[in-house]
User: Fold Short-chain dehydrogenase from Mycolicibacterium arabiense.
Amino acid sequence: MAELEGGGLGAELLILDVTDDRTIAAAAGHVAETHGRLDILINNAAIVGDGLPASRVSREAMLRTFDTNAAGVIAVTNAFLPLLRASQRPRILNVSSELGSTRLVNDPEWQYTSVAAAAYQASKSALDMLTVLYAKELASEQIPVLSVSPGYRATGLSGQPTPGAGDPAEGAAAIVAVALATESPTGQFIDDAGEVVDW
Assistant:
């Protein structure tokens, strides 16, 4: 936080819990009172669940993971939509993962085809569907909505070592590049190389 402020970015720390509607409403209210608009919403909160395959995942793990990774995105997006509508150039980015792609997971040649974290992967599939639904609904208002992937990064999301994972800062930079791009498609999945992926 201090580094951002030192860089002249005027960063402001605002804490909310995507599973707690009260904190979401309070955050949206603060932004409304302080700034009156929101230009870019990046939905980045996610949990991995219990990391188990579909045959072993529990109902509790599925519900908890979907609450954060999908329902939380709906709650936050809907709370901030009035502020996005007040922007001259609004956009919504949902941080997703190629692990939610049914096409890629079904591809025997894909390098991560053996991954089977059912709660996480299914929630990211749901998130990508929400991206498409919001994109279609908000197209007439010219609010682009995208799924973006940071790539395989050592973020500590799973709580396990991540051999071969890249620098999280590079994944974040890729997402920021999409957020700040002059033109944005809508209803698409953008990978960490900035390419549109058929997912």
